[in-house]
Amino acid sequence: MSDNPSASGAGRPGAAQPATASSDLSAAAQIETRAARPGGAWALLVSELTVLFRRRRTWALLLALAAVPVLIAVAVRLSASTPQPGRGPPFLDQVTQNGLFVAVTGLIVSIPLFLPLTVGVVAGDTIAGEAGLGTLRYLLVAPAGRVWLLVVKYVGAAVFCLAATVTVVTAGVLAGLALFPVGPLTLLSGDTISLAESFGRALLIAGYVTVSLLGLSAIGLFFSTLTVVPVGAMAATIVLSVVAQVLDSLPQLDWLHPWLFSHYWLDFADLLRQPIDASSFGANALLQGGYLLIFGALAYGRFATKDILS
Amino acid sequence: MSRPWLKWMPAVAVPAVIVAGVLAVPLQAGAAVDLPEKTPQGVLELAAGSTVDTFSGTLEQSSELGLPEVPSTGDAATAEFADALDLLTGSHTVRVYQNGDDQSRVQVQDTMSERNLIRNGSDVWVYDSADNTATHVTLPADAGATGDTGESYTPGELADKFLADVTPSTIVSLAENTQVAGRSAYELVLTPNTDDTLVGSVSIAVDAETGLPLRVQVEARDADEPAVSVAFTSLSLEAPAADLFSFAPPAGATVSEETLPTKDDAAHAETDQSGATVIGSGWDAVLAVPAGEDADQLAELTASPLYTQLTDAVDGGRALSTTLVSVLITDDGRVFAGSVPVERLQAAAAQE
User: Fold this and answer.
1) Which chain A residues have a beta carbon less than 8 Å from that of B130?
2) Measured between CB atoms, which of B112, B247, B253 is closest to A90?
3) B252 and B346 co-located in one domain
4) Which helix (H) or strand (E) holds B110?
């Protein structure tokens, strides 16, 4: 986060941050004008996404994510010894034989920390960021109301989850194509699938990981309604994702494991079996849906009863 | 905002609905299952007459033997030992595909890796994705139809063993009908007719429609949770896709070829280690292995730090005690094992 000027700037209302502050203000002005027209509700969504992906912070986060698989690929390419099976992250030893595994290894390395970190920053900023900058009341001028604003903010965070995962996978595939031979992919079951099918599986995995992050996004949205200090909401979200993973690794708490939002995060490997094992995807989707409903309802309760002063 | 509490209603209602839904699912599964009345004998016959040899399903295997958690890292010997113990502790998801007598595939799913056993006619492949190794075995033409290369994972194989062991030492009864993998099943309960064994009961859920064993659970005496459980979580009786059984080792894998010992070799090997004797019979039988040529291996085993971690010092040696099985290794290298308390093993060791 520290490499990212606008992230820290969002926490200090009034601080001179020309790029972000002005783009947010112009966005608020846009919303004010659009809200008057019918269809203003959808305009709010479009403008939210535009603002999100125009921010330098968003691009910095995506670039940092893209760097993970690229670094892995370069490190494996430059090192003299080939990685041994069973050492380092899973699939690392396969990278030299098939570059597509760069994407998979990149995801495995990103899932415990980097992806929750970036998602926590974006989700924690949703409401608190606007409140901190003093733009929240402008957004609420729109007739669509507070519920719609929450939905728009959540959709923005969910789209970022997709963008983040696709970034890791794409960067991994490109780095793999550039540095290693790419051919038919060997699955965990020992079967080999064609290149076209491999790209299909890579997309499925990106979808799985995106769904995995939806629960965390909902938690971040709820935390974001509790405070006007976005950094607080971001930190709380990220800390919770780490706590969930620590709890998930304690065998004494195995009754709790299926209820932790991080429990199925690494089970995307089930998509690399032959035939595809869809049961973990179903369980994961159900779990994330539960978190979305509960924390969505909590965020609504908080946001709808909150006095908006800024 | 005259009634702010109304806005909090969803935050209360949604978790309530979810909790209700979560509680309702096991209740539904536990609901009474209506099946035609049968005697234990009838259910045994139903199971014995089962002709299902084509199915695909997912098995859930779990063991609660009361063993300490074993670290999977460490030097190679420790890791190998831990691998062997891995099947005895924790839980595993296994997918099984069976097509007729001579085509089967068993997939043991681990996090980020998978172990495969594929049989297609006389070709048997074992593939482990963790170290990317494949092993090929050609079965002799006169091998038994089911082969004896696989680990006993299907409830069918486990149940057959238990059904064969039904002797006067066992009380066979029927528990309430149950549901396994969405199918109605009779539950056969085998209770040892003695107090000297650690086994409390063995229950086998037999599919009411086909007689296929769907679940096998072994309960230790005075335990609430089953010590060992193998159960289908999903089952389809349709033929699996044919290409599942045609396996070729992936490029880059380490491939090794192994030959099965012929019948003569096997017989020879058996006489070699025939020092092992069984004391008693039935549930409280004790297997005794005299100290012998394997002394080097035993010394290697006892030198492992895991050995000290897993076993307790008792009078006359060290004992490994689990909820179902006890093993006693005496100071002079003899090994006693059985589904009995350690005291009984010590008594057997003293008599020898």
Assistant:
1) 85-86
2) B112
3) no
4) strand B103-110
Question: Is the model's pLDDT at A93 over the cut of 90?
Answer: no
Average pLDDT score, chain B = 80
Residue B64 gets which letter from DSSP?
Answer: -
Query: How would residue A73 be classed by pLDDT, with cut points 50, 70 and 90?
Result: very high
Indicate whether B252 and B146 sit together in one domain: yes
* DSSP 8-state symbol, A83: P
Residue B208's φ and ψ, nearest 5 degrees, are -65, -25
| Chain B residues within an 8 Å CB radius of A108 | 112
Q: Which two tokens stand for residue B99?
A: 């097509």
Pick from A150, A189, A293 the residue to mutate for testing the B interface (most B CBs within 10 Å).
A189
Predicted local distance difference test score (pLDDT) of residue B76:
53
Please name which of B304, B306, B305, B295 lies closest in space to residue B330, comparing C-alpha atoms: B295
Is B318 within 8 Å of B90 (Cβ atoms)?
A: no
Q: What number of residues does chain B have?
A: 352
Q: Are residues B103 and B212 in the same domain?
A: yes
* pLDDT of residue B33 exceeding 60: yes
Residue range of the domain that includes B347 = 263-351
Q: Which of B258, B289, B319 is the last residue of a domain?
A: B258
Amino acid identity, position A25:
L
pLDDT of residue B49: 74
Q: Is this prediction's ipTM beyond 0.90?
A: no
Residue B32 belongs to some domain of the structure? no
Instruction: Tell me the mean pLDDT in the region B235-254.
Output: 89
- CA–CA gap between residue A38 and residue A18 (Å, rounded): 32
Give the domain CATH number at B312. 3.30.310
Q: Is the peptide bond before A275 cis (omega within 30 degrees of 0)?
A: yes
On whether any CB of chain A is under 8 Å from the CB of B244, the answer is yes
In a shared domain, residues B231 and B332: no
B57 with B90, same domain: the answer is yes
Residue type, B130: A
Tokens, residue A192: 């080999």
pLDDT in tens, A42-54: 888 999 999 999 9
Q: Which of B294, B280, B297 is nearest to B337 (CA)?
A: B280
The amino acid at B34: D
Region class of B325: left (phi > 0), else alpha (psi between -120 and 50), else beta: beta
The 8-class DSSP code of residue A273 comes to S
Question: What gap in Å lies between CA A149 and CA A304, rounded to an integer?
Answer: 11
The answer to whether A308 and A140 have CB atoms below 8 angstroms apart is yes
b/e code B37-61 from CB counts within 10 Å (16+ = b): ebebeebbebbeebeebbbbbbbbb
Q: Looking at the partner chain, which of A191, A266, A298 has a beta carbon nearest the beta carbon of B11?
A: A298
My answer on whether B254 and B268 are in the same domain is: no
Please tell me which residue, B194 or A204, carries the higher pLDDT value.
A204
Do residue B201 and residue B290 come from a single domain?
no
Query: Considering CB atoms only, which of A85, A251, A294 is closest to B131?
Result: A85
Range with top average pLDDT, A14-23, A54-63, B162-171, B215-224:
A54-63
Domain ranges of chain A: 5-305
